[in-house]
Amino acid sequence: MLHRIAGAAAALALTFAAGTLIPGMAHADPAGAAACAAKLSKPARMIYDASAPQAAGAGDLKGLVTGQTKGLVMAGKIDRSGARPAAESAGQCLVMLKS
User: Which stretch is the leader sequence (predicted)?
Assistant: First the structure.
């Protein structure tokens, strides 16, 4: 199980790195993040909702999402087999909250 979560963490690192390098992504876009979140699957939305309140000020957004995802998996709220794609999807929306 931890191998899958570690794989998800690596994928998130790439997602966040790409998101911070894309022109136009340098400024926080709460409306864009909300619109993005509205399209998420239920597990991804749970990760987004758990992470969003801390996302803007998070120094390590990947670490935040990984921790929230692990917590949701351990609590049985999301299936571990779907944790990685859900975290990646949530991460794409959460990046929009960073300034």
Answer: 1-28
